[in-house]
Amino acid sequence: MSQNDQIQALEVLQPIFPHGVFAVARGLTRDKIIPIVEALHRGGIRAIEITLNTPQALAMIFDLRSHFGERMVIGAGTVRSVQEADEAYRAGAQFLVSPHTDPEIIAKAMERNIASIPGAFTPTEIMQAWNAGARVIKLFPMRANLETYIKELKGPFHDIPFIVMGGVNASNIKSIKSLGIFAAGIGSELFPAHAIEKENYDEVEQAAHTLINASVSS
């Protein structure tokens, strides 16, 4: 990918992750997804990934695109095949996140002019994803020694945009972003189970607000 291609890729991705954060929804239900995402939006979140291993995920993506229009960017996660990529695109997904690197999924996303974000962990996997045309790469899996590993990767891969998921929260997101991470996906911290069960969406809004403030604070 040339330098111009990289610049164009980042210009495409920047509106998806305007604050360097996005929500990752797994296991939520269709009847609650719109009020939950409305709460996230009020709290400052502007993009959400619906994982395809969530029941009725495609229907939720469709519902969210229909309801929010341009107010939110809606993506599909856990995209493991070209068929799933096609189904997500037809449902309205604006970006695709995979746990692995599949050049065919990346090519399909490029054909559809949407972002494919493949998962990679080792230096070899990262280069395979980048050479296949990925615009940004998801470091996966990420848990222990998160910041140390990012520092090591950013040496040889300083020009590759990374996103991270897992182990990121309001207390460490600023320090992680300072390492040059393009964006972070946040899951359970934005979806307190007790609040969602009781339909206390104000708590979801506050969780989003806290995270955004931590991400953009000077």
Provide structural commentary.
Helix 2 crosses helix 3, helix 2 packs across helix 10 and helix 4 packs parallel to helix 5. The model has no long low-confidence stretch (mean pLDDT 89). The chain is globular, with a radius of gyration of 16 Å. It has one domain: TIM Barrel, CATH 3.20.20.70. The protein has 218 residues and is an alpha/beta fold. The strands form 2 sheets. Strands 3-2-1-9-8-7-6 form a 7-stranded parallel sheet. The protein starts with a helix and ends with a helix. The chain contains 10 helices and 9 strands. It is 46% helix and 16% strand.
CATH topology: TIM Barrel
- How are strands sequenced across the largest beta sheet? 3-2-1-9-8-7-6
Q: From the alpha carbons, calculate the radius of gyration and give it in angstroms.
A: 16 Å
Number of helical elements:
10
Mean pLDDT, to the nearest integer, reads 89
Strands, count: 9
For the record, the CATH architecture stands as: Alpha-Beta Barrel
Low-confidence stretches: none
CATH class, named Alpha Beta
Class inferred from helices and paired strands: alpha/beta
